[in-house]
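Student: Hello, beginner here. Can you help me understand the protein record under this note? Any guidance would be welcome.
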Amino acid sequence: MTDPEQSERLAELEARIAKLRGKSAPKPHQEEHYSQAQLAWRMVIELVAGLLIGFGMGYGLDQLFGTIPIFLVIFTFLGLAAGVKTMMRSAEEIQKDAMTPKTGAEEREKDGD
């Protein structure tokens, strides 16, 4: 074998090795497939977090001002509204991702081929 042929074969081999290493590289978190249960839990957590934050703020203000639980009720409802709004935004984002067409290459990457 001559030297140019050997360097070509070596370059091809290095390219194949790099391609195979790229397949086994960890995928970014954003490209993971989420099951329906994971999406449902995400929405539940967003709703509960909004409620708890509103409850905590209202309770704290009632304690601070020494009032009847008027702030607790108001901020709990505001927290509920914020949680529902966040849930709706997440549902819209999921719907948008589901409606975008995927190419064959993206499907193969997702499946690990």
